[in-house]
From TrEMBL:
Residues 312-360 form the NADH-ubiquinone oxidoreductase 51kDa subunit iron-sulphur binding domain. Keywords: 4Fe-4S, Iron, Iron-sulfur, Metal-binding. SUPFAM superfamilies: Nqo1 FMN-binding domain-like, Nqo1 middle domain-like, Nqo1C-terminal domain-like. This is NADH-ubiquinone oxidoreductase 51kDa subunit iron-sulphur binding domain-containing protein. Belongs to the complex I 51 kDa subunit family. One of its GO terms (molecular function) is 4 iron, 4 sulfur cluster binding. InterPro entries: Nuo51_FMN-bd, Nuo51_FMN-bd_sf, Nuop51_4Fe4S-bd, Nuop51_4Fe4S-bd_sf.
Length: 414
């Protein structure tokens, strides 16, 4: 592997090109390697340990292999399809939009390579209206990307969910549907479908050029390579950074220009994520290290909460937002999430009804695992995490006070 260009050194891999145009891209990374046979790229992906960057962290090579095994049109519903997912519905994530703006050619390379590897006849790149012009301009610059069909998806929390993307491509609403349906064997129009986040495909483009060994030169055994993160909250505007795998949450916050001095907690993994208390910000951003908190790196989203801000109020606001995002297709989700958000709002608002925490837990148990998609599970994860991490706040609220207000008054916060 490799070529005339030198592999990027340091953590700035995906953003190594000084500009987003094709000339700059080719000068930095070289052309799309046309050598590696499908099996060779799969081997490199497996050796690299690359996990999906859309949130589920599924091993990239497994997804490729699963969709590729359906290439025989006689065995499954026709020729395979590859979809690059740049929908990024999570409001606290900006990494996919940033990547598509700054390095669209890496994503296109990854999409082309994925198509070749699994023998796909159709290639789609889906993203929001804001990112479309950048991708369209990049596609127009090259002669090898004419097969890519660009599609717009609405900016909504659930529009990036895999089955919602497929539904949208089929002309339906960008809403989730049956999670038991396997895209690898029955995706778009019933055909084997490989759907990857755009960052995953950009990483594939780098691994195809420079190899698994190069990819693993940074990061840890569990979190090899680099990943994009979006840090926001407190006074920090959404900031995207490429960080080395296994960095601690505190180090990532500082790398994004934030301070950990006055933080009370960090929401890890976005609105479907879980809270990490301030005293544990030295936790590495890995699935293994975050598991005790019920958190995961997800799509690399960190939301900062000042110690002078009430974690219950912040969580109630997010739960209310999430409840409103329900596609209202499943009863437990449509009815249970608004009710759970309402009870959390009461607790956050100062109600002294001591039955509220138990009621939240009861509602969470009722909706968990009961949706056609993971929206109820993600929402209950956030809400239950709030009850655990902000347990002192819960007690204070039930006693008629608020610890965050007290801290703010005492001037603990900057
Ligand atoms: S679980 Fe909720 S968001 Fe998911 S499909 Fe059902 S109603 Fe829609």
């Amino acid at each position: 592997m490799g070529g005339e260009v030198r592999p990027p050194r340091g953590a700035g891999r995906l953003f190594a090109a000084p500009a987003s145009d094709l000339t700059s891209h080719l000068a930095t990374f070289g052309p799309v390697p046309d050598g590696p046979a499908a099996s060779h790229l799969l081997d490199e992906l497996q050796a690299s340990g690359l996990q999906g960057r859309g949130g589920a962290a599924f091993p990239a090579w497994r997804k490729f292999a699963a969709a590729g095994s359906g290439r025989d049109p006689r065995s499954r519903g026709g020729a395979a399809v590859v979809v690059a997912n740049g929908a990024e519905g999570e409001p606290r994530s900006a990494k996919d939009a940033t990547l598509l703006r700054a390095a669209p050619h890496l994503v296109i390379d990854g999409l082309l390579l994925a198509g070749r590897t699994i023998g796909a006849r159709e290639l789609y790149l889906v993203t929001t209206a804001a990112s479309l012009p950048y991708v369209a301009r990049a596609i127009a610059e090259r002669t090898d990307a004419t097969a890519i069909r660009l599609r717009e998806v609405p900016e909504a929390f659930l529009s990036g969910e895999a089955s919602a993307v497929i539904s949208s491509l089929e002309g339906g609403p960008a809403l989730p549907r049956d999670k038991s349906r396997r895209l690898s064997s029955s995706g778009l129009a019933g055909r084997p479908t490989l759907l990857n986040n755009v960052e995953t495909l950009a990483q594939v483009a780098l691994i195809a050029r420079f190899g698994a060994e190069w990819f693993r030169r940074l990061g840890t055994e569990e979190e090899p390579g680099t990943r994009l993160v979006t840090v926001s909250g407190s006074d920090l505007a959404p900031t995207v950074r490429e960080v080395v795998g296994g960095m601690t949450v505190a180090a990532i916050v500082r790398a994004a220009g934030g301070s950990t001095d006055t933080l009370g907690a960090v929401l890890v993994g976005g609105y479907h994520g879980a809270w990490l208390p301030a005293e544990r910000l030295d936790t590495p951003l890995t699935g293994h290290d975050l598991a005790p908190f019920g958190a995961a790196p997800g799509a690399g989203i960190l939301v900062l909460l000042e110690s002078a801000s009430c974690g219950l109020k912040a969580s109630a606001a997010i739960a209310g937002y999430l409840a409103a995002q329900s596609a209202r297709q499943c009863g437990p989700c449509a009815n249970g999430l608004p009710r759970m958000a309402e009870v959390l709002e009461k607790l956050a608002g100062g109600s002294r009804d001591t039955a509220l925490p138990a009621e939240i837990r009861r509602l969470a148990a009722l909706v968990t695992g009961r949706g056609s998609c993971h929206h109820p599970d993600g929402t209950t994860r956030l809400v239950l995490s709030a009850l655990t991490v902000f347990s002192a706040e819960v007690k204070a609220h039930l006693a008629g006070g608020c610890l965050a207000d007290r801290r703010a008054r005492a001037g603990v916060a900057a």
